[in-house]
Write a structure and sequence with these properties.
Elements lengths: L5 H4 L3 H13 L1 E2 L1 H8 L3 H13 L3 E6 L2 E6 L1 H16 L10 H4 L9 H26 L4 H8 L2 H14 L6 H19 L3
Antiparallel strand pairs: 1-3, 2-3
Helix pairs in contact: 2-3, 2-5, 3-4, 7-8, 7-9, 7-10, 8-10, 9-10
Length: 192
């Protein structure tokens, strides 16, 4: 198959959703994107490989874990895609709406606190969304633990980022982290 022009890639649903999902999570795994776009793992890795060829995403490996995240070019494309979707009369899902992602109470946060708060909010949205799906499908306790358990790693990474921050992290970020951790542990340990 001849290499298509990059613009044709983003006139398709799955690649567009994949790029938006990577933007939403910031740094994630191919398996998370696979679930998010309701695709097969093979198809998702093909999409991600193509995005890497086009300079939109970059893969990093830490130990046995392979992460994917947007490049600067990828962030620019997401911004344009969101504008295109809105211009065509579509609506972005709430979790992809930039306005709602960066609402914080009180004063403007420093960049480190804002980034950590963004990660906390994304994690909480995702955990609550998965939990709602588990409740809707009447899943048992073991299924719930299997689906929610992997997010404990992200929660730990956020806690480490707070602890190792060179600048003091805003109180509202610490409060949001504590609340999210409590919600996560409560949902993870809830009996079906």
């Amino acid at each position: 198959m001849a290499k298509e022009n990059p613009e044709y890639l983003f006139l398709q649903e799955k690649p567009t959703l994949a790029l938006l999902a990577i933007w939403f999570y910031g740094r994630t795994y191919a398996s998370v994107i696979t679930k998010e776009i309701n695709s097969t793992f093979a198809h998702t890795t093909k999409i991600l490989s193509r995005m890497e060829e086009d300079g939109l995403v970059v893969f990093t490996v830490e130990g046995r874990i392979k992460y994917v995240e947007l490049t600067e070019k990828g962030h620019n494309v997401v911004s344009l895609l969101k504008d295109l979707i809105i211009s065509l009369g579509g609506e972005l899902p709430d979790e992809y709406d930039l306005e709602s992602r960066h609402e914080v109470s009180g004063d403007e946060l420093d960049p480190t606190s804002a980034e950590i708060l963004d990660r906390i909010n994304k994690l909480r949205l995702k955990v609550e969304s998965i939990y709602k799906g588990l409740v809707d499908s009447d899943a048992d306790t073991e299924t719930a633990k299997r689906k929610l358990g992997p997010f404990s790693r992200e929660l730990t990474m956020i806690g480490d980022a707070i602890d190792s921050s060179e600048t003091p992290v805003a109180d509202e970020v610490i409060s949001a982290f504590d609340a999210t951790r409590e919600v996560f542990l409560s949902l993870l340990n809830k009996n079906g």
